[in-house]
Amino acid sequence: MPTIAFQGEPGAYSEQAAFDFLGAQAQPVPRPTFDAVFDDTTAGKVDFGIVPVENSLAGSVHRNYDLLMRHTLHIIGEAIVRVRHNLIALPGVELPDIRRVYSHWQALDQCEHTLGRLLPGVERVQVYDTAGAVKMVLEEQRRDTAAIASKRAAELYGLPVLRDGIEDDPTNFTRFVVLSRQPASPPAATPCKTSLVFATRNTPGALYKALAAFALRDIDLSKIESRPLQGSPWEYLFYLDFIGNQSDEVCAHALAQLREFSTFVRVLGSYPRANMPA
Amino acid sequence: MPTIAFQGEPGAYSEQAAFDFLGAQAQPVPRPTFDAVFDDTTAGKVDFGIVPVENSLAGSVHRNYDLLMRHTLHIIGEAIVRVRHNLIALPGVELPDIRRVYSHWQALDQCEHTLGRLLPGVERVQVYDTAGAVKMVLEEQRRDTAAIASKRAAELYGLPVLRDGIEDDPTNFTRFVVLSRQPASPPAATPCKTSLVFATRNTPGALYKALAAFALRDIDLSKIESRPLQGSPWEYLFYLDFIGNQSDEVCAHALAQLREFSTFVRVLGSYPRANMPA
Description:
The structure is a homodimer. By secondary structure, chain A is α/β, with parallel strands linked by helices. Helices cover 29% and strands 34% of the residues of chain A. In chain A, the strands form three sheets. In chain A, strands 1, 2, 3, 4, 5 and 11 form a six-stranded mixed sheet that branches. In chain A, strands 8-7-9-6-10 form a five-stranded mixed sheet. In chain A, strands 13-14-12-15 form a four-stranded antiparallel sheet, with helices on one face. At the A-B interface, strand 4, helix 4, strand 8, helix 8 and strand 13 of A face strand 4, helix 4, strand 8, helix 8 and strand 13 of B.
């Protein structure tokens, strides 16, 4: 049964992504930080790691792209989770009892308007994880405090959901990638995606020339994002995902051409594409 | 003396950006939300608005791009602020007294490691604004609580800085844009930047063809980012900044060509380029 490290406590959205990817056989291993997920996967303490790389509302998680660059792990898969936040409290607690809310900053931010409407003036306390927020409410036996987390977190800690679907925007998806010491080798017919990071010289047309590698071969891009290169304020890194497998001949030619027109290319992995959840 | 709306309390980084842009004559007007900044600027209650659009660590502020799309305001300038966070507390308070820290979620996140080292196990409380956090510590006279905010916020509220430069990563810059009901008309020789949003059909090579508009004319891009179009999960919007003024003949040709190869183009404004702070 494969072990897979994730950031947070049992019931975190990352844990749900691990089950989505590996099925019920998965053995998720909670870790306190993203760094620990990368370190333990690299050191072989777990079989895999799983981390979020982008949210449909908040954008890319740059910290995890930085960690991908600092480590030599491969992306071997992706999982897309529909983020549905719930207000969770001790049994018998009602809305008027609640003076403070615990959650991860991103969950607090994503429920900002709904919280303002349901609980005007409530204190928002930022903790390291959504499921950890539920655990804290339970352990501290706080009747004046609610947590924002997944339904699964409520079930795991045996607490009732006071309000479900409290996120401001229902089109809230997070995309996770699965990390391994060995690259994936998906069968030839599997629809795949490839993730990479590249840099170009800061000259007009440099990005256009780099993208010709894909456009000339009708390779579809599913993501591109420029990011200032740290320490070099006017140079840019690009995160890019394309549809295809680096071992396909056409994609291999595209990558060879991209290398010719870039100052740096690192392929993070080719892996089977995930479907959007319902 | 021009009035300029910003999100937060006096001493917020957005207020500093307003002074950087308009000089000491600026009359910054604090507003509780980004929505209020856009609404008051649109309604003519203030001359200008100023909002953050990207941070070098956290990435783009998608909410403000969404607001730019929903309003008809023009970007007439930019300001780049070096974000330097400080730990601020009541006079006489020392590190061992501190049990909780108030700040905006982004500031708490950007000081995560340093806080863990200086104040292990400290409670992180998320409030709506960094300078507002200082105001709360002062008003509540809390001797067990510190705020994370700018040096100017400490000075405004007359509180001492316990530790300065507590951000985990010193390459921490935020880029703000200035909003107006009227477009800017910079003199012809001014080095300018133009910001726009566009969408393409989701077909291979669509982005490449769109970017030809700039590459064929040696127009330099300073930012590009794809973002899933809300409600259309597999379609993408792009945020793009290029170096040049839309009223220059070459840039006008580029924009005409971009429109031909896009399903949607909205130019947010052409404005003088800001320098990176020291």
